[in-house]
Fold Iron(III) transport system permease protein.
Amino acid sequence: MLLRRSPPRTAPAGPPAPVRRRRRPPRALLGAAVVVAACAALPLVWLVVRVAGADPGRVAALLARERTLTLALNSAVLVAVVGAGSLLLGLATATALVRVRLPRPGLWWVLAALPLAVPSYLLAFAVLAVRPEARGLGPLAVVLVLACTPYVTLPAAAALRAADTGPEDAARTLGLGPVSAFCRITLPQALPAALAGTLLAALYTLADFGAPALLRYESFTWAVQAAYEGTVDRTGAAVTALVLAAATLGLVAAERAARRRFTGARAGTAPTAAAPVRLRPAAGAAVVAGLGAVAAATLVGPPAVLVGRVVAAGGVDADLPRLAVAAGWTLLLSGAAALLAVAMALPVGVLAARYRSRAVAATESVAYLGQGLPGVVVGLALVFLSLVLVPALYQTAAVLVFGYAILFLPKALGATRTAVERVPVEAEEVARTLGRTPWSTWWSVTAPQAAPGVAAGGLLVAVTAMKELPATLMLRPTGIDTLATRLWSQTSLGAFGAAAPAALALLLLACVPAALLVRATAGGPGGAR
């Protein structure tokens, strides 16, 4: 029998996949990464131990009580509604950004991503300032969809930019219309990325505290905070927090599976950007009006409402010195959290980018636990851990910064790993052959090239820490206010006019680094996400 030799396969066009070293990682690097992973797992471990040490009968009664089931149903309905709304609006926005010729396209990219800097409770505050009677699922779903849509828009737009448009062109030649060909051929290529973003939106929704509390919708986070503040027995708070943590970790696992599917689906394909389409004047005006309406509702509406409240009240005594102190603490704490999160992410990110083993994969997975721990859960755990292990640190800025670092470590870790993977391994090997030590190679070759991506991760941590609320309420030192806690203390009393200056200051403070981050990572139509 003659065997026909298969022709050699040609490698697809596009950038080569990053190469990982297979040898054992240095012990110092692995040890540092394990310590970071242990720190990330500390709140969840404490929560499990706390619940396991409680009376089993009481735990079972708390899990089976009607209130727990009501909270689970309310949270599930909210997640489903917000997820569906974010998916539809995010896909529509991503399609408009990538496939439609817009006036000043770079501006629309920035406006589509800037809502990441706007806390959901600030949007809820604006809704209440206009309609004090607004309560329940409807207003809350609108607020969270506006806050979460960028989680879908950005990955979906990146996937649409990298989609193979050849099959769509072939479908057009066979008689399909442009809309039908896009929806049936190209849009499905972006669905895995959009679904991964939808799971991130669901995760944000499940972990959110401020907006559900302001709009009086009973969810898990609100129940945990209320149980912590209003009762002496903390078992109920711990059990509810563990249920919440289990639900969010399930969403994290689903999001990572969807992200791996998206990455595997596009590996080995050459990115082929489709030329934006010039629509008819009426259709183009409708698209621009839709994008503008979403941007106005998210970015222009809250400041306009706040200024209107101040004007209607005939001016408000803003207590500028105290406001300046709160802004200073916001900058100081978020900056310290960004530095600590980047420092913790570096050993894990380098390890995951350069080495492959089960130990490395397990260490990286544990380090991502913070992504599945809502702020209220981390705050509750660190309150008791600091009291038991290091009472001298209870209610100090150090514990709060550590809590921020655990919560937002996954953001810094993802950016760090990606940045290091993009540095060619061959450049490091050449430096080693020239006599440089591993540390010298890192500082002279890898670090300069990875620095922009690592810095972008730090910026993302700082922006997110500025608006973090539940952990800040639990862990902040006595007598210290951030802009978020100052805004919360006044809105919870219904003093909307007095809360307006703090809200405006928080919005301005968060939007500046967010705009820098968006321009660095999105960069408009031609940039990378």
About this structure: The chain has two domains: 46-264+281-307, 314-522.
